[in-house]
């Protein structure tokens, strides 16, 4: 049986000659591939000088100009994948939020910070009547520039927002998620309220930020201590905006909680300029830490002044990117400095000398806004002037009614002021205090 079986198999194999030609053909192809791979390996190991010229030029130029902009040397590891991006004019993504009666102020702030390169999302909270939200949406929809560029959106879902509660964080994260979904090309997220106003033009901002690493986060922060531990970290609160249709104060329980030991708590300004990579991390939370912090800050007094701060300072990848400044000029009340005072004409000189790109808070239609428009922004029509406005300015004509190349910038005096501020913020003395 075995002999017959063996013979039958062997006989069939050697009697079929069709396998010979394919076998030698495949052998020849395999040998050619192996030889090519070996020769290619030798060529690669000795051919570094043959890299494309554009790559060499980009990297050399970056090394020459980046030393003053990086907070820590470990940030440089992420540059190679973004060399081309860093050579371009950046883009900002703005959230402008307001409540009942703020729609006109929101539009004024929008027009003052508008630039075709940027993305904008407006949120008028649930306290505003439906008619006001509809008027805001219709104003954006009817605007010829906004309609042409398609970079201004009004959030259709209105949320009830408590400033000191986690509903403000939830609204901010929702806006970030929408901005990430709608556009893949912006670099920094900026949150403003209807009571904020710019002190420099967007051409100034874009020009100065063109020379910055896309890894820098501007978020004023400090390690929470003293009375804030007892009055903010220990209480257990409930934000009624999660459950009710009208605003009311936070509900504070009689119980207290212990402080966490697995992470450190930080606090600071609720107004931030955050990188796309960091806010993506907050949305996706691939190691679950941002979601853990979101749950923790659900029961935290003034959680908007702690959530992003605690996340960034407890994450090794981002903690060295945090610059402790909110890029705002704010005048505070007497100690403990918990409430910003309304800015007016008497504050103009201090605002102008602060070199900050934004200021808050302003009353509705305060005359100091007209002074800012005239003397700091050079704003004579709807939008703050920029190189993208190429229309005629004869008579009452709006030069921004005709749109030009949005990559061309015309920085003014505000750019020099902002550059001076950033030189201070990026100095070794300032950055050495990160997340401490």
TrEMBL record:
The keyword Secreted does not apply. Signal peptide: none annotated. Keywords: Glycoprotein, Glycosyltransferase, Membrane, Transferase, Transmembrane, Transmembrane helix. It is found in: Membrane. InterPro entries: GLCAT14A/B/C, Glyco_trans_14. GO terms for molecular function: glucuronosyltransferase activity. The chain crosses the membrane at residues 20-40. One of its GO terms (cellular component) is membrane. Its main location: membrane. It comes from the Eukaryota. It is a single-pass type II membrane protein. PANTHER family: CORE-2_I-BRANCHING BETA-1,6-N-ACETYLGLUCOSAMINYLTRANSFERASE FAMILY PROTEIN (PTHR45719:SF9), GLYCOSYLTRANSFERASE (PTHR45719). This is Uncharacterized protein. It comes from Pisum sativum.
